[in-house]
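[Automated response] Your request has been received and processed.

Submitted sequence:
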Amino acid sequence: MLDILSIIDIRFVLLVFVGSIAGLFVGAIPGLSVSMATALLVSITYTWNTTDALATIMGVYVVGVFSGAISAILINIPGAPSSVVTTLDGYPLAQKGESYKALYYATICSFVGSVFGLVALWLLAKPVSNIALQFTPMDYFLLAFFGLATVGSVTSKNYTKGLMSAALGLTVSMIGLDPIMGTPRMIFGLSDLQSGIAAVPALVGLFGFSEVLSVVHDNHLSQVVLQMTKMKVSFKETLKHWKLSLYTCTIGTLIGALPGAGGPVAAFISYNEAKRIIKNPEVPFGEGAVEGIVASESSNNACIGGALIPMLTLAVPGDAVTAILLSVFYVHGLKPGPMFIKESPEMFSAILAGGFIACIALLILGLLVAPKISKVISVPKNILLPIVVVLCVVGSFACNNRLFDVILMFIFGLIGFLMRQHDYPAAPMVLAIVLGGMMDSNFRRAVSLASSTDNMLASMFGKPITIVLTAVTIFIILSNIPFVKNLFARKAAKNSTL
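Generated structure:
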């Protein structure tokens, strides 16, 4: 504790707040991701003092992850893949005129999740890293597959349509150069597709431009304007969900510690767990249940501390931002790894101090500044829609600075519109696009390693962690098959009559 306090001075605090303000606005604009902001900061801060650079980047990181919820709640466009789940209940709340309530819950839960993850980083860095170190390529594949299996039940009343959406996303994720062989796949002669489909244009198109097309198609340009009015949300009411928040924080921290999994997986699994635990919410999930926001925002912000664990102790980044943060360490001559905390305790303290100060900044900015940003939803649709289109174009172009991504955004917007018309959820497709590359490379790596053994099946599925992940994935799929669900429902009804 004394080491952390010794790092803090006025300059350090101000730099954290500067980074936090930047993270708030960058994260709130669809397409302008925290990863992009962090990458830009690397080029700006490489001549800075190391602690100054870490202070600014931690501010951007912590608040940037939260601010993705702002656009998710207000205009149904998640600012980041990890905020996709927040749209499921945040946007319906905004449509009911309760956007302030949604933002309040998102702020409080993001604060709790961030603090929880950083405390876990402080106390449990080595133990959790040891668990993550035991994961095999097959385990990473199964973890992602489990996320896709759960997302079908989370986002759609029709489980089959949810899985079909995820399957389409996996197909899209296969486009580009083969990660193992280096040969092109499904590029149809277009050199621009060799690098694959970027997640940002797909996400912005599926959630942003498809919303514009839906509104224009339904001729709802003159519909009732959503009003942002300050509501009295008691802290006591928020505390009712403390158990769910801490539970999903734990999920987020553990999944964050698994390299490559990150916020989207944590948010979807936590949301599914919330649906499983909360049997009778005041408002059904998907229609404005605050429990959905609690689960999503607590878990994806808890991933921050979790993602830093393997990065600092194993030099293995837990997500895209920590991968960029790793480059900051190397630029400044630091060597993350098993001996990092022992050899550079002052840098570990700087990360923790920056993170905790950023949590305070998140609370202040989320409660005072975010509601001001939310005034955008009071703009009439005939004015708002052109602004949304411009944001979609700018966000897609800013991803890789190429017009081809803008074209992709329009294509995915049309796909998203058609999916909406036929009640296919877009969220499973987005998650599959994000996780598809990881699933592909890890599965093929697992098969390659197992093929050289005497018993290929036992090598791939014989380890304890693999058995557990396989079992829960099969259970999730079977429990959502209509025949099995009806069987359980009839059995429950029969038992209730006895």
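Summary generated for your ticket: Strands lie at 176-177, 184-185. The two ends are 59 Å apart (CA to CA).
If you did not submit this request, please reply to this message.
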